[in-house]
Each structure stands twice: as structure tokens, then as C-alpha cells.
Specification:
The complex is a heterodimer of chains A (181) and B (570). With 181 residues, chain A is an alpha+beta fold. Chain A has 4 helices and 10 strands; from the N terminus they run βαββαββαββαβββ. Helices cover 38% and strands 17% of the residues of chain B. In chain B, helix 1 packs parallel to helix 7 and helix 16 packs across helix 23. The N and C termini of chain B lie far apart (81 Å). Classes of the chains: A alpha+beta (181), B alpha/beta (570). Chains A and B meet through helix 1, helix 2, strand 4 and strand 10 of A and strand 9 of B.
Chain lengths: 181, 570
């Protein structure tokens, strides 16, 4: 049992997010994070969904059920292949004047950025894999984290293969079947 | 041409071949009902929207094509819910059209506003909310296409009142439907066919599990050829009944919780299961950990999400069953499984001595006898629609169907109250058929208001109420698993004969087996709908029974100290 990262290309229509979220609830899967955004194609949005405690068999079941949603164009389970996954966090940290340089050094080490400075606090922006962000959060905690927000993971497979519209890539759709001509 | 949204709805329905709509009017759907007057579509006014959804479902399952139910917003729409969920679980193609409050009021808790697309999201194959009249034609075409293609199912289209009223310049769109995410046309891989053929040819104890998919795909002929050429016996799921002739020597009967004992044993002992258009429901498998452990499995299935869901299979042939069978048949050689077939026949012989049909009459009226007699006096040719409960299982066991689309029942959802409205829908789809609704006293009372619909429409269905004064199947579970503590299962019913007469229909009562034939004949000869109140043995149970979650081979059998047996042995 592990986290799994699924990518779904969906038609950009009202209610599609609800359909996807409802499917996870209905089939009793927990969503760890879910992000939605535009893609290179007009009218197609891309969701990155990270689920908790899912076996490869669960991922297969989820994928098959996602395909049953009429507005879902393409689904891929990226967990089974090398991928780049990124999360972005904004972290507001309490910074008394005497600790500011210490915090700036930490930010440097993590290749994060300070995007706002106030008298007694800073906002740090960091992008990276989830564990890198977790690492920064841990070292900042003793200074006093006032507020934090994370976007949730977006992911992409490494190499030239791409998750694209099924109509352009008809063989990638279902592992156990092909589309008739 | 200039058309209002309401007119566009009816134009589109006509193009889809719709001639009958089941529904109930109300404020938010009024513009559409007003336009109906000018179109050659018959509207059946039901007494409750649930009835409309079940009628559309029965209509579709009887072979009438996509069934259409119509309702207003709010309570009209929510009353459809049980019927929609029933259709989803049994893959029945229906389109439900609901009125919605005018788009400017949506989200403001207007009178009779409800979020029916939200409510039905998990119980429809797909649904739509239309607020712009320009979308209406496209959406309705898509709705019918989605409902009937692939694995069929219910589609709901919720239409704002102002979209029904608005008039636009409109022509029917004939261009191909574009649904990039919807591919109902999956086909098996060639290498999977090759693997399947090899498995079929090497099997010693093969068994076909025929489900509803055989009927949905119209694959009866192909199944028959497959079974005969490979000499493979056929077991059926509840909804698979009719997909293979009951009188065929290779037919074994129904499998599962109340399946025949020899069928369940054959499943456990088979070395190859050929699952055709069935989904290994828990009522079919019992305990998955002990289910069919000796067999390899080939799954012919149109819905990829059903493959490996409950039972792990060795080969999945995804796609339309009829197409898959047509592809595989030319590669199949004649097989001989006489040893296996003889072995199953021996088990069948052992069971026959327990069969209630083979015991002498002791003067009491048993439901199984009523069903068996009904089968005899209708020559096995009736279109039988059941409700849910004991009578449903007895009907599945004792009414033997040779023809397809002659047995309609709520399988997956197990919806009490289904029989009467579904039978009315089925009769309208197949006016030439002799239609019998078989229901318990409990289920019948859930939707008995639809008797009024049958009377108003002049639709003739015969209704056999298997009246045992209990919610029989729940009582049976209480008897077996709750120490006979009959909590909330004894049920007092009205005088069903008078109920029938109050509707201007004929009511009959039968208390002895000797009266069954006369009543059935009278029902057949009477012009209008006839209700027969069969007062059957109160505490009879359905056997065999696999307790929920139990091993398929560990069945509760009809006990020897049964009242009928006692008097038979006297």
C-alpha cells in the first residue's frame, strides 16, 4: 500500500471536478491531493490526483472507473514510471530581527525564495518534490510557522512520452483492450 | 425553422424513435407538456414518478428501445431516484428528462428547486443540466447515444424552464456526435483471443456463466452455438434468465444464493469458467476466498471496470459480447465433456428428491406450486416481471423461460415495488405479449397506485400477488439467522380483490392449489388487468440458500422435517 499519482485529462466543463471527486468518495478512495489546471490543448484540463493507501490493483480499478466518466479523456498512472512531481508551498515564518539571517541561510540551502518581508515575519516560497518541502517545513518549525499553504502535487512522466488526448493516442487507453478502427 | 426548447425536446425524441413517454407534469416542465399536445407521442400519466422510471425501465428491458421518463423539478425529480438507481444497477437504457427552475433562480432555493444533477451523479451513467436552449439538441442526442451504447444505463437531462420557453432558429443536427472521453467500442486483443481458445480446448470441466450481458448484446444465438459446439453446460445469473433456453439439455439453471445446488457445486468443481456478460456479484459468488478455486477464468465483459473487480480472471475479452463470440466461434473445435455432464446430472438427480414440485399435494398452497402452475398454464410463454423477495426467487427457479426478454426483474438494486410499473412498461413495449407481474404482498403495496395507471391506459397485465402475510424474504432471514424474532415482518394487507374492483378491474382470490388453473385461465380470458391474490403458506422458505458471504458449496437445503414433507410421508 502506497501513495499513487494519477493524471487525468478532462474536458473543461462545469461539474467535472465534482464528478471526479464524487467517484473517489463513492469507491471509498482517499484523495491525498488534487490539482487542476489548463493544458497545452484548449478545452482540456489536467488533474493530478494523489491517493493514499492504494495498491496497483486499486489504481487499475480507479483508472477503469475514471474512464467510465464521459468527460474524462485520458488517464495515466504515473506511479509505475519515472516521473517529475512538484509541489509549491508558501510558508509565513515569524522572524525576530536576530534570527532573520539564520532563516535566510536555510532558505538558500533549500533553494527556496523569500517573496515577502515584514518587520517580524517573512513569506518563503519553495517548489520541489514533496519530501524536500517537508524537510524545509521541519527546520522552519522551531522558528514559528504562522501560516502555510501548499498547492498539492503536479506530475509529469520523464522522457518524451506524453499523456495526451485519447483521440490522438488511441492505443494508450486501456491495457486489456484496443479500440476498434 | 423557429422552435422553442420544448418543441426541440419532442423533435429530438421523435428522431430517437420514441413513441411513448412515462411521466408526471408540474410547474418547471409545463412548457414541455404544453408542446406535447402537437406531437404524435403518447404520454402515460403515472401515479408517482418512481412508477414512470420503472415503466421506462420495463419498456427498455422488454425490447422497446430507450425508455423515457419525464418529471418536474424538485419532488418530481427526486421521486425518480429509486428508478434511476435500479436502471443503473441493471444496465437498463433510460433517459429521464426533468424540468428545472428558470436558470436565473438556480442556486437561490427557489420553489421546487433541487440539485437533481448533483443527486443523481453517482446513479446515472451520465447527466446534464441545460440552461441554454442552444445546447438542447446536442445534449439530447448525446443522452440517447450514451444511454444505449456500450454498457447501457440511465442518463438524466435536467432542463431549466427558460431553456424550454426560449425560441431559436433550429435545425436537427445530423453531424457525428463528438464525445472525446466516451469510447463504448472497445475490442479484445488478438493475443487474448488466442489464449482463450487454448484454454477452452484444454478444459475438462468447463462451465459458462451467462449473465444479463447475453441479452443486452443480443448474443443468444452465438451463446447457443458456443455451448453446443464445445459441449459446455450453461448456468445463468438471475438477470441472465432467458439468454439460453431453459429446456436445452445443456442448461443447468440459476447460480448463486438461491441457485440450484448442482449449479453451485459445478461452479466450485469446474476447471474453466466462461463468464459472459456477468459481473461476479456477491449474490452469485458468496465468499470470494472460497469461490471457484479450481478454475481458470475467461471474462467476456463490455465494462473494463468489472474485470478483476471481485474475481481475478486469467483472460479478459473486453467488448461487445456478441462481437467477441462471433470472433472466437470460427476458432473453436468440437469438444466432448460427457463425463463432466454426466457427473452434473448425477448431482441434479440427488437434488430432485428434495424439490417441492416432486412431493405430493398436501392440500396447502405453496408459492412454488403457484409459479410452476403459472408456467404450465401460460405454456412458458409469458413475459414475467417480478418484484423482489421470495416470490422473485421462486419465479426464477420454477418459471422456465425458453425465450429471451421474457423475464424482467430488479436484480442489482433489489427494488421492491418494481414489478407492477415495470410490467406496465413492458406491456406497452410488447402489446402482443402475455404479461404477468409476480409480486409479494409487501412489494405490491409499494407501487399499487399504478393499478390506476393500468386502468386509465387500458393496459392489460395480469398480477399474481404471492400473499404470505409477511415480508417473506426478511422473515426467512429472521428465521435462519435471528432466532425467529419476527421484527416488523408480519404484514396486514388490504383486500386485494376489492382494491382491484375499486379500480374497475377484476380481482380473484386463490387459497388452494386446485383453484390455480381456473384463476390463471380467467385472467387470460379477461380483457382488462386482473389481480389474483394467492394466499400461500405463510412461513415457507426459499431453498437452497447460501447465507450472505458464505461458501457457495455450503447451502442450506430444504429440511426433512418440513411441513410438506411430513404430511407427504404420513
Amino acid at each position: 500500500m502506497e501513495k499513487r499519482t494519477l493524471v487525468a485529462l478532462v474536458e473543461d466543463k462545469p461539474g467535472v471536478l465534482n464528478r471526479v471527486a464524487s467517484l473517489f468518495r463513492r469507491r471509498a478512495f482517499n484523495i491525498n491531493s488534487l490539482t487542476v489546471g489548463h493544458t497545452e490543448q484548449e478545452g482540456v484540463s489536467r488533474m493530478t490526483i494523489v491517493t493514499d493507501n492504494s495498491s496497483p490493483n486499486d489504481a487499475e480499478r480507479l483508472t477503469a472507473n475514471l474512464y467510465k466518466l464521459v468527460n474524462i479523456v485520458q488517464v495515466a498512472d504515473l506511479s509505475s514510471q519515472p516521473m517529475v512531481s512538484r509541489d509549491l508551498a508558501l510558508i509565513k515564518v515569524s522572524t525576530p530581527a536576530n534570527q532573520r539571517s539564520e532563516i535566510m541561510q536555510l532558505v538558500e540551502v533549500f533553494r527556496a525564495r523569500i517573496v515577502d518581508v515584514a518587520n517580524d515575519s517573512v513569506i518563503i516560497e519553495i517548489t520541489g518534490a514533496e519530501d524536500k518541502i517537508d524537510g524545509l517545513v521541519e527546520v522552519l518549525r522551531p522558528y514559528g510557522i504562522l501560516e502555510m499553504v501548499r498547492t498539492g502535487v503536479v506530475a509529469m512522466a520523464r522522457g518524451s512520452s506524453a499523456v495526451t488526448d485519447a483521440s490522438a493516442n488511441s492505443n494508450g487507453r486501456q491495457p486489456a483492450a484496443v479500440l476498434s478502427a | 425553422m423557429q422552435r422553442t426548447g420544448a418543441q426541440i425536446i419532442w423533435e429530438c425524441l421523435l428522431r430517437e424513435g420514441v413513441r411513448t413517454v412515462f411521466g408526471y407534469p408540474g410547474g418547471a416542465i409545463l412548457p414541455t407538456y404544453d408542446a406535447l399536445v402537437d406531437y404524435p407521442i403518447h404520454h402515460v400519466l403515472t401515479r408517482h414518478e418512481q412508477g414512470a422510471a420503472h415503466m421506462a425501465d420495463g419498456y427498455a428491458r422488454a425490447g422497446g428501445g430507450v425508455g423515457v421518463a419525464m418529471a418536474t423539478s424538485g419532488p418530481g425529480a427526486t421521486n425518480l431516484v429509486t428508478g434511476i438507481a435500479t436502471a443503473l444497477m441493471d444496465s437498463s437504457p433510460i433517459v429521464c428528462i426533468t424540468g428545472q427552475v428558470a436558470s436565473k433562480y438556480i442556486g437561490y432555493d427557489a420553489f421546487q428547486e433541487t440539485d437533481i444533477t448533483g443527486i443523481t451523479l453517482p446513479i446515472t451513467k451520465h447527466n446534464y443540466l441545460v440552461t441554454d436552449v442552444h445546447d438542447l439538441g446536442r445534449v439530447l442526442r448525446e443522452a440517447f447515444f450514451i444511454a444505449r451504447s456500450g454498457r447501457p444505463g440511465p442518463v438524466l437531462v435536467d432542463i431549466a424552464k427558460d431553456a424550454q420557453q426560449a425560441a431559436i432558429e433550429w435545425e436537427y443536427d445530423e453531424t457525428p456526435i463528438r464525445l472525446p472521453g466516451y469510447r463504448p467500442d472497445l475490442r479484445p486483443l488478438t493475443e487474448d483471443f488466442e489464449k482463450a481458445v487454448e484454454m477452452i480446448h484444454t478444459a475438462k470441466r468447463p462451465l459458462i456463466l451467462a449473465g444479463h450481458g447475453v441479452l443486452m448484446a443480443g448474443a443468444m444465438q452465438e451463446l447457443l452455438q458456443f455451448a453446443e459446439r464445445t459441449r459446455t453446460p450453461v448456468a445463468m445469473t438471475l438477470l441472465g434468465i432467458g439468454g439460453f433456453p431453459a429446456s436445452h439439455p445443456l442448461n443447468l439453471g440459476m447460480m448463486g444464493m438461491h441457485g440450484e445446488a448442482w449449479v453451485n457445486h459445478a461452479i466450485q468443481e469446474a476447471d474453466l469458467l466462461l463468464a459472459m456478460g456477468m459481473r461476479f456479484d456477491d449474490r452469485v459468488t458468496g465468499n470470494l476466498a472460497t469461490y471457484a478455486q479450481n478454475s481458470r477464468k475467461i471474462h467476456f465483459e463490455i465494462d473494463p471496470s468489472e474485470v478483476n473487480k471481485n474475481v481475478k480472471v486469467d483472460v479478459a475479452l473486453i467488448g461487445d459480447l456478441r462481437h467477441s463470440l462471433q470472433q472466437i466461434l470460427p476458432h473453436l473445435e468440437a469438444c466432448d465433456h460427457s463425463e463432466w455432464l454426466e457427473y452434473i446430472d448425477e448431482m441434479r438427480g440427488d437434488s430432485a428428491v428434495r424439490d417441492i414440485q416432486n412431493l405430493p399435494d398436501n392440500g396447502r398452497l405453496y408459492a412454488a406450486h403457484v409459479i410452476n402452475d403459472l408456467w404450465r398454464y401460460t405454456r412458458g410463454e409469458a413475459l414475467v416481471v417480478t418484484d423482489v423477495g421470495q416470490h422473485q426467487m421462486w419465479t426464477a427457479q420454477y418459471y422456465r423461460h425458453d425465450k429471451p426478454y421474457s423475464f424482467i426483474s430488479s436484480g442489482g438494486l433489489g427494488t421492491m415495488g418494481f414489478a407492477l410499473p415495470a410490467a406496465i412498461g413492458a406491456k406497452i413495449a410488447r402489446p402482443e405479449a402475455e404479461v404477468w407481474a409476480v409480486a409479494g404482498d409487501g412489494g405490491f403495496q409499494m407501487t399499487q397506485a399504478e393499478l390506476s395507471t393500468a386502468a386509465q391506459e387500458g393496459v392489460k397485465v395480469n398480477i399474481a400477488i404471492i400473499n404470505n402475510g409477511f415480508l417473506g424474504m426478511v422473515r426467512q432471514w429472521q428465521e435462519f439467522f435471528y432466532e425467529r424474532r419476527y421484527s416488523a415482518t408480519p404484514m396486514r394487507s388490504p383486500d386485494f380483490v376489492k382494491i382491484a374492483e375499486a379500480h374497475g378491474l377484476t380481482g380473484l382470490r386463490v387459497t388452494q392449489r386446485s383453484e390455480v388453473e381456473r384463476a390463471v385461465r380467467q385472467a387470460q380470458e379477461t380483457e382488462g388487468t386482473v389481480v389474483i391474490d394467492f394466499r400461500v403458506e405463510q412461513e415457507d422458505s426459499v431453498y437452497p440458500m447460501v447465507p450472505a458471504g458464505g461458501d457457495l458449496h455450503n447451502m442450506i437445503r430444504r429440511p426433512k422435517q418440513n411441513a410438506l414433507m411430513e404430511s407427504a410421508l404420513d
